[in-house]
Amino acid sequence: MFKKKNISLAVIRRLPRYLRYVEDLLNHDVMRISSSELSQRMGYTASQVRQDFNNFGGFGQQGYGYNTQVLYENLVKILGLDRHFKMIIAGVGNLGQALANYTNFYKKGFRLVGLFDVDPQKVGRSIRNVEIKHINKMREFIKKNDVDIGVLCVPADVAQEVANLMMEGGIKGIWNFTAKEIDVKDDVVVENVHLIDSLMVLSYRLNEKLIEKENADQK
């Protein structure tokens, strides 16, 4: 059983990265790793690694470290990847189409079951054998198919309206790729993904490097 306690969002956001590293270790037949070795690979401290895992029960043994298979299985359970989630995408523009074609979703247990748009030139077409339906059919589709996750790839000015339709259908979680922060009911989970924010963080870090180089060149 995992420990029941409030986990910081910072810890939760590190879990997928742990999972990727541990999965890579298994692919290279590494069956045991210490917190020190894992921290060196990931750029964290060994203490932070141990503290992160202790939030969920630990999983390691003193003097042995972590069995990578056991660690992988526990991370999968913590992240809910041992379940299968039904997912729809609202807005089948360039981003929506790219997400619809991303096959790794299926490998991780996310099953794309519906695509929705208002463009008559898109409605009726299919992506990976999933037909694009008109968005006015989305609410009933969610109810009928017990959809878990709605992906928002619509223009920002209609994001709340489309999110409301999803919630009226009974959606449980919304993955929001729009530039608008949406309001959701207490029983709906939302994850906002602002691509431009990430790009601006990259810009900041790149700018810092360029400034360092310019200052060094002036000396």
From TrEMBL:
- Source organism of this protein record: Caldicellulosiruptor morganii
Q: Which SUPFAM superfamilies match?
A: NAD(P)-binding Rossmann-fold domains, Winged helix' DNA-binding domain
Q: Which residues form the CoA-binding domain?
A: 80-181
* Protein name (record): Redox-sensing transcriptional repressor Rex
Segments of the chain annotated as binding DNA: 17-56
Hey, which family's this protein in? Answer: Belongs to the transcriptional regulatory Rex family.
On subunit structure and binding partners, the annotation says:
Homodimer.
Compartment(s) of residence: Cytoplasm
Q: Which gene encodes it?
A: rex
Q: What is its main location?
A: cytoplasm
User: Per the record, a Pfam family?
Assistant: CoA_binding
